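Weekly structure sync, notes
Attendees: PL (lead), two postdocs, one rotation student
Agenda item 3: pending single-chain targets
PL asked that the sequence for the first pending target be pasted directly into the notes so everyone works from the same version. It is reproduced below exactly as submitted, 381 residues in total.
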Amino acid sequence: MESIIKRLENLYEKNLGGIREKISAYNVEHERNLDGPFLMSSREDLYRKATVKILFVGQESYRLRGRNKSESYDIIPLMENNIYVVEETHTNSPFWHSVFKITEALNPELKNKSCFFWTNVSKYSVDGGSLLPNEHKFIVEQTNNILLDEIKIIEPDVVVFFSGPDYDDKIRIQFDDQLQFEKITGNIAPREFARMVHPSLPRNSFRTYHPSGGQQQRINYQQLIILYSLGYDFESLMNDFKKQNEEIAKELNLELNWDPKIGQVDSCFYFYKPEWPFGIGFCFDDTWARHFFGGICRKELKLISEMTAKLIQEKLGVNQTPTENLPYWFWFDEHKNWDQKTFDEIENGELKMKIKIKVEEMLLKLEGETFPANFRPALSE
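Predicted structure, written out during the meeting:
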């Protein structure tokens, strides 16, 4: 059987004949500096060993001319340059951090191994930047729209477009009218995170922001890609989690305040009694579910009075300085560093039992105390 790399090589030789001369002529005519083509390759032995085979698709290659080790624009050196960039010159940039994070989560047996394929929406760039829409269309035509053939050859299980919504039209040029960007979960717009549906793509195909451009978002889309690729239905899982905590509240005769964005950064829920000026809260925090912890929290975003804070401190036997968001907290040691365990335990009900035990512990310590109304803030301004 012919190797993946050899099939890619044959594809490029068939479709890229004369491409250098065409691009050179375009550059002269339009006074542009189109740089490329960027060609796929990988360590095929590692890719074949991967449990989940992944293709990452970026936007365009950043200054390929300056990163081309061999300085040759022949097909085989350009393919080898792809491996060189991944293994020798990549840095801990947001893009590569996300690539290896997803790869290692889905293929833990190949940790730190470049067992994936990598390409870009555009085979060319302009001085490391994006092509104009008409230039992208020109390049797609001159390279015979080879993206779909590349995907067909490597047969990935997961495809991740780290291109952002502004590249959707460039992607559409390379597919057809059947391509759809579908909403995956109810409270995240398809513009931010979408499942890409097309006969040429595997079910687990996603488009989200380029990691360098999405760092200010309150959702870690890479974690969602991991969850869905592993077969979790995140929205259903969070709905089940809500029901589990509603059961805890009912069993312990408490009320439950639930954040509709639970599971995202700084999303919290808490149990309370109507007469309490606080709640027993739990929070997903720090890069989307990396940490899960709980403690005494503010109720309805109101600060706790100094008198109440002192009573809680005495009851719990803690010496912590109250903070605005969570005056007294404790970690779930099992959930301090994110992995799939948190979601496994939601699915099988283990986390529910741990939460109930923590709430019962707090209730026991606070039993019999009457807490005064908040008459002044616990924290000085």
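Discussion points:
- The CA atoms of residues 52 and 157 lie 6 Å apart.
- Confidence is low (pLDDT under 50) at residues 376-381.
Action: rotation student to compare against the earlier draft before next sync.
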